Amino acid sequence: MFPLICAEELKHTISTSSVRILDATACLPGENFNPRQHFVDGHIAGSLYFDIEEFSDPDSTLPHTVPTPARFASLFGSLGISAEDTVVFYDQGNVASACRGWWLARLFGHKNVFVLDGGLPAWRSQEFPLERGAASKQSNTSYRCKTHYERLKGLGDMLINIEQNLHPILDARSAERFFGRAPEPRPGVASGHMPGALNLPFKRVLDESGHFLAPDKLHQIFIELGMREDQQAITTCGSGMTASVLNIALCRAGFPEAALYDGSWAEWGSTPDAPVVKDN
């Protein structure tokens, strides 16, 4: 699975075939803007807005956790998407939003799904067309999920994984947060990391313009972390967003498709009995 598409290729694909383009822009901790307004202000022509908060479990106390398959299918279908469609996610520049959309679609079994490498800034840099205003209403389709539960991990899975040392855990948070030298942005959440976890801040797999590094460079990064080429990793972060950037990077580097710990540190760091390591 090669998960990325460049702006030039997407422009060509739009002109030659049917493709569904989704702006998945969402705020990360520390960001303060209105994603829907950003979409209205300028988006790739023909794209729709993919609201990550809507594509989440409304009953969860944790941020934007995975919805039920029925909820995902209903919402994806409301965007007029069928299982046979090619879907491309992008965001307005933080990278993680589009990657989270890609990971959700892959979790629920969508095969032809990609991320626009470099996001909207890459599209703008080519002076490709944008449009303003709300997206047009789509006709509902009947979407069926084929959920890959092995790509999703919960708290119990992580406790077992640590106890039995089953899969490497890659934490996409900054080193300051990982080592407990900086406070967590969410109140009531401990600082530190899971026992045995490896720190790989998500920006390390990107270049200065927000594009993913070349496959060979990504491969070298994972090997230097101590991973084997046949290992399925588990990614984690603060709330399951930037972790998905590592999922993309692992695919691009030729590693098996990774699982993602959806509760991430928002859950682990607020669970009283979950072990926390500080290396400060």
Automatic annotation (TrEMBL):
<dbReference type="InterPro" id="IPR036873">
    <property type="entry name" value="Rhodanese-like_dom_sf"/>
</dbReference>
<dbReference type="InterPro" id="IPR001307">
    <property type="entry name" value="Thiosulphate_STrfase_CS"/>
</dbReference>
<keyword id="KW-0808">Transferase</keyword>
<keyword id="KW-0677">Repeat</keyword>
<feature type="domain" description="Rhodanese">
    <location>
        <begin position="15"/>
        <end position="132"/>
    </location>
</feature>
<dbReference type="InterPro" id="IPR045078">
    <property type="entry name" value="TST/MPST-like"/>
</dbReference>
<protein>
    <recommendedName>
        <fullName>Sulfurtransferase</fullName>
    </recommendedName>
</protein>
<feature type="domain" description="Rhodanese">
    <location>
        <begin position="169"/>
        <end position="277"/>
    </location>
</feature>
<dbReference type="InterPro" id="IPR001763">
    <property type="entry name" value="Rhodanese-like_dom"/>
</dbReference>
<dbReference type="GO" id="GO:0004792">
    <property type="term" value="F:thiosulfate-cyanide sulfurtransferase activity"/>
</dbReference>
<dbReference type="Pfam" id="PF00581">
    <property type="entry name" value="Rhodanese"/>
</dbReference>
